[in-house]
Amino acid sequence: MAMFLMMIGHNQRYVVIKRRFQHSKQTIHKFFYEVLDKMMLFAKDMIVPTSFNPNPNIPGHNKRLRKVFKGAVGALDGTLIHAIVPKAQQDLYRGRGKGDCYQNVLAICDFNMIFTFIVAGWEGVAHDSRILSEALSDLDAPFPFPPPEKYYLCDAAYAHTRGFMAPYRNVRYWLGDFRRRSALTNKEKFNHAHAKLRNVIERAFGVLKARFPILKRMAPFPLATQRNIAIACFALHNFIRKEGLSDDFFAQYDQPNVSLQNSHVHVNGNEDEVEAHGTAADRDYMTQLRDGIAEQLMQNIE
């Protein structure tokens, strides 16, 4: 276990582990995969769906906004994790505008930065909405779809429909956009408030990647192993948070307005790229709900 944690927590290679623990590469390889297999079982206990009734007293910021977005049960987003990919497959995993390759991971977290659902191993070029659409229809790993009146906060890379509340398109959204000029219209006020709450998943990703540098520079394992390493990191992240351990990484990222924009998502993206799901009635319902929250924010907040 110590060898495994040193490899994923300090991104050390076999040669360094061999020198530190005085074991052969074959022994290290054997133990690494034994622990990784157990971590897949551990992940099933650590990464579990939310109860959909979030505790209003969860430590954190923006409690007043959480009361306005009273149906919000967490945030949903994708993140890119570095991958080592065979040359023949690199075009599928290459990040947008970058030379490196990545796997795309879809995740949901609650307002305490605990991940409640993940889908790992997708190609880096896969659109976030496509990954969500596939996850919604995957019978082997049932998606934790919110009950009526509940929803996840997501950015404009996803469809705005029942269960998923996205911001207004073509309106300022990222927290950095509001630092020089305050929100003026009801749509801008909604987007600013939405971004403050949805920022929890950006901060959770920030903690995850700061703690596990292997996610930013992956070791040359097979792709299936790289996917499982990512899952193990998510599970260990949750364990530390759930145990309430004093932790410098959580303390660093548990700030109210940390701006950690995901570079592969654009709020002004082409709506045609977003895979729609749900019915027209579902989309109309969420549009009316969003408009109502925007009006409430215009009257009562800031």
Plain-language structure description:
- Helices cover 43% and strands 12% of the residues.
- The protein is α/β, with parallel strands linked by helices and 302 residues long.
- Strands 3-2-1-4-5 form a five-stranded mixed sheet, with helices on both faces.
- The longest helix has 26 residues, at 186-211.
- It starts with a helix and ends with a helix.
- The model is unreliable at 263-272 (pLDDT under 50).
- Its main location: nucleus.
- It is found in: Nucleus.
- Keywords: Hydrolase, Metal-binding, Nuclease, Nucleus.
- Belongs to the HARBI1 family.
Task: Please summarize what this structure is.
This protein has 302 residues and is of the alpha/beta class.
Helical stretch tally: 10
Pick out the low-confidence regions: 263-272
The span between the termini is 50 Å
Overall 3D form = globular
Q: Strand percentage, roughly?
A: 5-15%
Mean pLDDT: 85
Helix content estimate: 40-55%
Largest sheet: 5 strands, mixed
> Over all CA atoms, what is the radius of gyration?
20 Å
Would you list the SSEs in sequence order as H and E?
Answer: HHHHEHEEHEEHHHH
The number of strands is: 5
Q: What is the spatial order of strands in the main beta sheet? A: 3-2-1-4-5
**Class inferred from helices and paired strands:** alpha/beta
Question: What labels describe this entry?
Answer:
alpha/beta, DDE Tnp4 domain-containing protein, 10 helices, 302 residues, five-stranded mixed beta sheet, hydrolase activity, single chain, globular, HARBI1-like
Q: Layout of helices and strands, plus pairs?
A:
Layout: H1 2-9, H2 14-21, H3 25-46, H4 63-68, E1 72-83, H5 90-93, E2 101-109, E3 115-123, H6 128-136, E4 151-153, E5 164-165, H7 186-211, H8 223-242, H9 248-253, H10 280-300
Parallel strand pairs: 1-4, 4-5
Antiparallel strand pairs: 1-2, 2-3
Helix pairs in contact: 3-8, 7-10
Cofactor: a divalent metal cation
Subcellular location: Nucleus
Protein name: DDE Tnp4 domain-containing protein
